[in-house]
Each structure stands twice: as structure tokens, then as C-alpha cells.
Specification:
Elements (H helix, E strand, L loop, with lengths): L3 H15 L19 E10 L8 E6 L2 E3 L8 E7 L3 E7 L6 E6 L13 E9 L8 E3 L4 E5 L6 E5 L3 E3 L9
Parallel strand pairs: 1-7, 6-9
Antiparallel strand pairs: 1-4, 2-3, 2-5, 5-6, 8-11, 9-10
Length: 171
């Protein structure tokens, strides 16, 4: 049995494929991406009762509120614009609500040259009954970018204050 004609046919097909015109993107205008001036935040939520099914994440940016999807593993992703301040709020029934502030004003300072920035962080929601009637005094942290350098700057504030009681006690 002679295999030579079959090899020649395979080689001919391969050579023909190489001679096909290769599509280029020069004929269409470049697509402008909305996220070029953005930072992507990826967070992981952990809760003391071990289920993230009913955790609510709210992101307030420029007067609008969005609610990103939270996966079964507690992961969520948010894309924020440059030169903005956002407030992320994490809540779940029976747990203390937490907020963080994200400031993207100095996102492009330093040597970052318009590369999309990606920040990863974790949030732990604590059961109210473990806090002895206390709540957080304000946002528990902030994520920002250093003025002039653009490096990620993170701060924490775990101060607590007595929780306001919403119900009037009747004797």
C-alpha cells in the first residue's frame, strides 16, 4: 500500500490553508472599551452562619445603586469608573452590616499607564448576637490609590458604638 498520495494531499491542504486571506482588524474601527478607565474589585464574603445565599451587596456610584451577583462561594465582582467615589454595603439578616468606601481618583497616578487595575479583598460579616449590642461607627475600611504614586492604599476602622434601638419598650 502506497501512502505517498495521501501525504501529498494533506500537505496540499495545509499549504492552501496558509494562502487564505487572514482577517485583519484594520478594516473596522477600534472598539472603545468602557472599562479602560476602571478598577475591577473582586471580593469574597464570609459569614458566621456559613451561608451566603441571602447576602446583599449594594454598590453606590455617582448616585446610582447596583447589586452585583454573589456566587455560592461568596465571590462577587464590581467594576468602578476612574475619578469616582463608591460606597459598597454588605448586609445579611442577623449580621452586622458593613460598608467600605472606594476612591478611584488617583487610579492612574504613577507608572500604571492606563492598565486596568484589579483589587481583591475579603469581607467577614459577624453575627449581631456576638457583638453585644454594638455596631460599626461608620465604614469599616477604605480602598484608594495614593496621590502621585497610584499604589493601592487600604485602611481599616473597626471602631464600634452602641447600636440604636429601633423599638420602643412598653411596660
Amino acid at each position: 500500500m502506497n501512502m505517498r498520495p495521501r501525504h501529498q494531499l494533506t500537505l496540499s491542504i495545509a499549504l492552501a490553508a496558509l494562502q487564505l486571506p487572514i482577517p485583519t482588524h484594520a478594516s473596522s474601527p477600534p472598539v472603545e472599551r468602557e472599562d479602560e478607565d476602571a478598577v475591577v474589585l473582586t471580593g469574597w464574603l464570609a459569614v458566621e452562619d456559613l451561608t451566603v445565599r441571602d447576602v446583599l451587596v449594594e454598590v453606590e456610584v455617582n448616585g446610582s445603586v447596583r447589586t452585583p451577583r454573589v456566587s455560592e462561594s461568596g465571590r462577587f465582582t464590581v467594576t468602578l469608573p476612574a475619578d469616582a467615589e463608591a460606597r459598597l454595603r454588605f448586609s445579611k439578616a442577623g449580621h452586622l452590616t458593613k460598608e467600605i468606601v472606594v476612591d478611584t481618583h488617583h487610579l492612574w497616578d504613577g507608572r500604571f499607564e492606563r492598565k486596568q487595575r484589579h483589587v481583591r479583598f475579603a469581607i467577614i460579616l459577624t453575627l449581631e448576637r456576638h457583638m453585644g449590642g454594638l455596631t460599626y461607627a461608620g465604614p469599616v475600611g477604605s480602598i484608594g490609590f495614593d496621590d502621585g504614586g497610584g499604589c493601592v492604599a487600604v485602611s481599616h476602622d473597626r471602631r464600634t458604638v452602641p447600636a440604636k434601638r429601633g423599638k420602643v419598650m412598653v411596660f
